[in-house]
Amino acid sequence: MKVVVIGGTGLIGSKLVTKLGEQGHEAVPAAPETGVDTLTGEGLTEVLKDASVVVDVSNSPSFADDDVMHFFRTSTTHLLRAEAGAGVAHHVVLSVVGTERLQDSGYFRAKQAQEELVRASGVPFSIVHATQFFEFLKGITDAATDGDTVRLAPVGIRPVHSDDVAAAVCRTALGPPAGGVVEVTGPESFQLDELVRDSLAAEGDPRRVVADPEAPYFGARLGRTTLLPGPGARPGGTRIADWAARQR
Ligand SMILES: NC(=O)c1ccc[n+]([C@@H]2O[C@H](COP(=O)([O-])OP(=O)(O)OC[C@H]3O[C@@H](n4cnc5c(N)ncnc54)[C@H](OP(=O)(O)O)[C@@H]3O)[C@@H](O)[C@H]2O)c1
């Protein structure tokens, strides 16, 4: 089966292309460096020829509010239009657990707009919602840093390894369209400020973590369960301590 992976050179996309190939599928990575640009539409008609499934794991190069909204609106519109023309049978998109609860954030407003375009497109679809990747905790920490202080809300977080996300997206892409959201998460829950405090200490990073219930998360205020998945989420097997030990 031919599966086109939009963003197939990125963190999740490259792992997904490998996994699909290992299972005997023709996995085609699509990104600007392979001649496919969803923002302009360049290369889309050609790459989608004979594709059964399209997986969108692309991301905006800029997270500024207007840029990210422009990226997900424009690229998703181009992509879904091209898929309808090519007769693609399943569109899979990777989004974030809690997107609908994080609408004070420009990034999550753009992800919500992306999901709404997918739902309205008429192309059979699955939306995979993942919790925060282990690899993204550094980005969360840096975004919350002011000088030597990291201000984070004391809320629940259940991060997941990118390998486990790629495996879940792969499973979804090879199955029937869910017509809704499938959640994937990690095996353990933490409190965000405590997790970051322990990670920084383990790395010898001198930054101080302050628990602040008002601290914004990419512009949104968090409740205790905003970032947590529902009870039906499929847990990945990789524990963060094992991953961190391997990183070190
Ligand atoms: N980070 C998290 O914790 C988290 C949690 C849940 C869900 N997600 C979602 O997961 C998705 C993938 O994240 P990721 O970290 O794997 O992304 P990533 O590593 O930043 O990769 C993004 C991919 O998109 C491609 N891309 C950028 N502009 C493009 C364009 N105009 N046309 C086609 N492709 C383009 C990039 O290609 P180039 O490298 O060539 O630019 C790259 O292959 C995102 O949509 C994100 O919302 C993330």
Question: What is this structure, in a nutshell?
Answer:
This protein has about 250 residues and is α/β, with parallel strands linked by helices. The protein has helices spanning about 10-20, 45-50, 65-85, 105-120, 135-145, 160-175, 190-205, 240-245; strands spanning about 1-5, 25-30, 55, 90-95, 125-130, 145, 150, 155, 180-185, 190, 210, 235. NADP nicotinamide-adenine-dinucleotide phosphate (NAP) binds next to helix 1 and strand 4.
Structural description of this entry:
- By secondary structure, this protein is an alpha/beta fold.
- Helix content is 38%, strand content 19%.
- The protein has eight helices and twelve strands.
- It has a seven-stranded parallel β-sheet with strand order 2-1-3-4-5-9-12, with helices on both faces. The protein has a three-stranded mixed β-sheet with strand order 6-7-11.
- α4 (106-120) links the parallel β4 and β5.
- α1 (11-22) packs across α6 (162-174) and α3 packs parallel to α4.
- The longest helix is centred in the N-terminal third of the chain and has 22 residues, at 65-86.
- The termini are far apart.
- The mean pLDDT is 98.
- Bound molecules: NADP nicotinamide-adenine-dinucleotide phosphate.
- Residues 6-7, 9-13, 31-33, 36-39, 57-59, 61, 75, 94-96, 111, 130, 132-133, 136 line the site of NADP nicotinamide-adenine-dinucleotide phosphate.
